[in-house]
Specification:
Helix content is about 70%, strand content about 0%. It contains four helices and no strands. The chain is globular and about 50 Å long.
Length: about 170
């Protein structure tokens, strides 16, 4: 019976953390979307850089800004392993979701024979939504891992005192 208030007290904090992460994830994503589109426009339309090169540069700048935003804001309460490892896994997840998006659009266009801009844009938006969900879950699982594994079945509401982990304490 004494555990119920503890669990009730912990649940809202977990929901608040999730809401904060999701909000920050969305804001970082929106800013990086604008960076990518604006960077492409600047490089391609105004500076005369080739389309593929412009897209590559804009994507790398946007992805790096997303990594920094997620590391230092969205997932700031999580473990911070080496930047090189995190960035490589981050880039791999982005690469997988990029390929997924390209595959969805390609399947709708070629095997399904759809050439309507509206149909292809719906497929594109659907793949973006799916990719966003995969990226969020992937970042939480593999890039910005939980700070510390939870002890046991989560009986303790706060970090255990050294040497007193198995002894319940009245307060």
């Amino acid at each position: 019976m004494p555990e119920s208030p503890v669990r009730a007290g912990r649940a809202p904090s977990r929901w608040r953390l999730l809401a904060r992460e999701l909000t920050a994830f969305g804001v970082v994503g929106a800013v990086c979307f604008v960076l990518q589109v604006g960077g492409f426009q600047l490089l391609y339309a105004h500076l005369g850089v080739g389309a593929v090169t412009s897209n590559l540069i804009a994507t790398l700048v946007s992805m790096t800004a997303a990594y920094l935003g997620h590391r230092y804001w969205s997932f700031s309460d999580r473990e911070r392993s080496g930047v090189a490892r995190q960035y490589l896994v981050f880039a791999a997840i982005n690469g997988v979701t990029l390929l997924l998006g390209l595959t969805v659009v390609a399947v709708v266009r070629y095997p399904l024979g759809q050439d309507s801009a509206l149909v292809l844009q719906v497929a594109n938006v659907g793949s973006i939504v799916l990719g966003t969900v995969i990226r969020y879950l992937g970042y939480r699982r593999w890039v910005f891992r939980a700070a510390a594994p939870e002890a046991g079945a989560g009986e303790q509401p706060e970090p255990a005192d050294h040497g007193a982990a198995a002894v319940p304490v009245s307060r």
